[in-house]
Amino acid sequence: MRLVRGCVAAACIASLLAGCSGGGGGGTAVPKVQSTGQPSGGGRGTVAITLKVPISGRPLGKARRPQYVPPTVQSFTVSLNSVPVTSVTQNVASCALSAANADVAGLTNENGIAVLPFDGSIYVTGNDPNPTNNTLAIQRDQTQVIFSNSFTPAANTLGGDYYGNMWNGDQVDLNQVPFSYNQGGGVLNGFSIGNSSPNPYSGQVAEGNDGNLYFAELSGILTPVGSLGQITGVTFGNCCATYNTDVAVAGKPGNLIGSTDKMLWYTDTSNGKIAQYNATTTANPEFSAPGGLTVLPLITPSLTNTDVFALAKNGGGVLSLIDFTEAGTGTVMQVLPAAYTPANVTGIVQGADFALWISQNGGASGNVVRLSQGNPPFPYSPQTATVHISGVATGGDGKVYYLENDANKVGELTLSNTCTTNVGVTAGSYTMTAKTFDAPNGGGNQLGIVSGPVTIVSNQANNFNFTLNGVLSHILVVPQLTNFSGGCPLPDPITIQGLDADGNIILPPGNFVDANNNPITVTVTSSQGLTVTPPSVTQTGVVSITYPVAFYTDTVTATASGGPAPPGTASIQDGCGG
Question: What's the pLDDT score for residue 251?
């Protein structure tokens, strides 16, 4: 039986950084099927029970920090005519990671890729001679939006905030930096930076624990300088943001990120260390990598705690993956083979599978490479042959995105995990029910369910394909990114997001159900009495409301009927495309 569900993380992911090779406790003992309720006669057939679940993305929402989905599925149960057949725990020896590789249209001369924490959209920048074609947004539903603007984005200075704005530097109007794109699809707020270095750029943007945004200041040739720029007054829609001041910091920041607790981290290119900046206390310690290694400007935050991952090299250029705790303790997680030289690695990110992913160039082409502790690096070739890969990011849909420069495309890897077990069952016709749980042996929260008729044939393997529905626990209502250049009125798309008890996204084709597989309908209403199209959804999807003018105030409410989930609401403060 093949169980496919998009709303839960994979069964063996709980220790993916230690590898998905299983080992130990492959499954519980399989009870014999009792005669009660079973068809009489017939031999025994083997049922191949396969749990295959895509790795989840992040929930949508105006979170002040990213909400990442933990790998919560640890067991599934299967019953025939209500009689339990099997329960499989998370350490199934046959679990294996797979990735479906594809690509989508990109930009000319792509030079930057980043994820918007607000909704998980992927942004791509390019250097087309026509600057109106230099910014692309790829939304969770794969809808693409091209931004029209007069700026030429600077390479590798792309970053998003938690208010719905994407920020970048400008390599033409050198005194108008940084600038941003907001949910309305427009370019806003070009600032002059106060730093005295010539032709300053804005670097990567991250939110500090004081509520302000910070960016690494770079000179006109992308050389780090010894300060962070501060942006104050940032809100959803970015109505009032202004450049405030320069903040002097230790060393010269070459890459800036924010951890889950909003501590700012950067690589100090002047001495090969990693530094931390507390925007509230201004504490600014620096930390050395273990073993005398030199930290490179390639760092990414942990998705589960306050740690930071970095790449570092020794005197011979051998790369190591370092895990830095918030206290500054660095631990070597993995030493990479010689083929992964510092000059060839162009990006690093932690994926929704909690492994580390790097983009790598080498020779005539490049790869996207998965790094997991205890396993050798595993490269994925680009969908388009012989292209160079210059960046990598994890989208809110859980996919790994990468830039295929030479092809002007964006590659995407859809990750999934498959765990299989086999049991002997008396031949005959049954009603099979499968459920997923976030604790071993069918314990904890129930996350999914499917039920349907099956016929077991003796003396052969019986494989069945089902789609699990998500047991609805929460609802999120989130405005989608749109380009409202066509004027008003325009339909404003709004995502209705269903989550299970662990916050995993219930992705189609799975429907919203209760724990007994009874369907749940989510009805969407406008506080202004405007028409919602369609008026309800039965799975994660998009509705729209046509607002008569921009800057329209409305409250959108999604209410579940037939289930325990509380209503989800969102305040729309910029209608007509906002």
Answer: 95
Three-state SS sequence of 487-543:
CCCEEEEEEEEEECCCCCECCCCCCEECCCCCECEEEEEECCCCCEECCEECCCEEE
Spatial contact of 544 and 207, defined as CB atoms under 8 Å apart: no
CA atoms within 13 A on the CB side of 322: 29
Task: Tally the C-alpha atoms within 13 A of residue 71's C-alpha that lie toward its C-beta.
Answer: 24
In angstroms, the CA 266 to CA 349 distance is 15
- What phi and psi values does residue 551 have, to the nearest 5 degrees? 55, 50
Q: H or E segment at 264?
A: strand 264-268
* CA distances for 492 relative to 31, 548, 561, angstroms: 53, 10, 24
Closest CA to 123 of 193, 233, 204, 56: 204
Lookup: tokens for 28? 């519980």
Q: How far apart are CA 119 and CA 113, in angstroms?
A: 15
Pairing of strands 44-54, 2-4: parallel
Q: How far apart are CA 41 and CA 373, in angstroms?
A: 50
Q: In the numeric block, which tokens belong to residue 31?
A: 């009870």
Closest by alpha carbon to 497, among 522, 532, 525, 519?
522
CA distance 27 to 77: 11
What does the pLDDT read at residue 407? 86
**Mean pLDDT of the region 326-346:** 90
Residue 96 pLDDT > 80 = no
**The one-letter amino acid at 395:** G
Classified as helix, coil or strand, 342 is helix
Backbone angles phi, psi at 158, to 5 degrees: -95, 140
Return left, alpha or beta for 61; rule: phi > 0 is left, psi -120 to 50 is alpha, else beta: left
Q: In the structure encoding, which two tokens stand for residue 291, read together?
A: 């073993």
Half-sphere exposure of 340 (CA within 13 A, CB side): 29
355-369 confidence digits (pLDDT tens): 899 998 876 778 899
Q: What are residue 342's phi and psi, to 5 degrees?
A: -55, -35
- Give all strands of the β-sheet with 122-126 in edge-to-edge order: 110-115, 122-126, 135-138, 144-146
Residue type present at position 94: S
Domains assigned to the chain: 2-97+417-470 (2.60.40.10), 110-248 (2.130.10.10), 474-572 (2.60.40)
Calculate the dihedral angle through the C-alpha atoms of 500, 120, 65, 567, rounding to the nearest 10 degrees: -40
- Local confidence band at 137 (pLDDT 50, 70, 90 cut-offs): confident
Helices (H) and strands (E) in the chain, counts: 0, 46
Examine the pLDDT at 372 and tell me if it is beyond 70.
Answer: yes
Q: What is the amino acid identity at position 399?
A: K
Structure tokens at 439: 């604790």
Q: pLDDT tens digit string along 451-508?
A: 888 888 877 767 666 677 888 988 888 766 554 444 567 677 788 888 888 777 777 7
Which three-class secondary structure string do you get for 24-86? CCCCCCCCCCCCCCCCCCCCEEEEEEEEEEECCCCCCCCCCCCCCCCCCCCEEEEEECCEEEE
